[in-house]
Amino acid sequence: MSTTRLMILGLVSYLQPVHGYDIRKELTSWNVESWANVQPGSIYHALRKMTEEGLLEEVATEQVNNRPARTLYRLTTPGTAEYQALLRRYWWEYQEPQDPFLAAFAFLPSLPRAEAVGALRARARLLEGWVTSYRDNADKWMEHKPPHVGWQFELTMARCEAEARWCHDIAARIEAGEGDHHSEHPEGHGAEEWRRAIRAEYGEPVDDEDE
């Protein structure tokens, strides 16, 4: 929610007074749902909530022909302070990205060795394809955009390139026989040994909630 607040407050600060419709269209054009976890459907709700909290204020309501009425918003003094605080918080803090792939990778042993190798190499190709697509279309994507938007794409490309190299490296190590896969143990994949290790490190459960 705080990322949504930052994106909306930031856009209002740039464009105020501005309609909620324009904020939604602008954020949608940025594809924020893919990299900032901001869902376009949540924008109007966030605008109403921040207005109730006193961070935004409604300037006027406009209606053109038979179109739905649209409310103009601007920042209040508390809204400006909240925007500046969130902006600096995300500049100075690091939060580890939440990637569903990491959850799946935690259960790597559930995949047969050959499938894990193929999946990692396929992921590398996807990442490399994204980087190639950006480089081939950079001029078009950057048309009429400020330089820092290009720098943001460069950061994304650098991350994709680093992860692609990591995928190739791990695939090669798995193919060479490193790691452990459940399919290689017909007698069982060591669940009981895992439980014993957990008990040894954390002790026995003290009540039913720990089970």
Q: In words, what does this structure look like?
A:
The protein starts with a helix and ends in a 9-residue tail after the last helix. It contains 9 helices and 3 strands. Helix 7 (113-141) runs antiparallel to helix 8 (147-175). Helix content is 62%, strand content 7%. The chain is elongated and about 70 Å long. The protein is mainly alpha-helical. A 3-stranded antiparallel sheet has the order 1-3-2.
- Total number of helices: 9
Helix content: 55-70%
Radius of gyration over alpha carbons? 24 Å
- The largest beta-sheet arranges its strands as 1-3-2
Q: How many β-strand runs?
A: 3
- Percentage of residues in DSSP E strands: 5-15%
What structural category do the secondary elements indicate? mainly alpha
Mean pLDDT across all residues, rounded? Answer: 86
Largest sheet: 3 strands, antiparallel
Low confidence ranges: none
Elements, N to C (H/E): HEHHHEEHHHHH
First and last CA, distance: 32 Å
What characteristic shape results from the CA principal axes? Answer: elongated
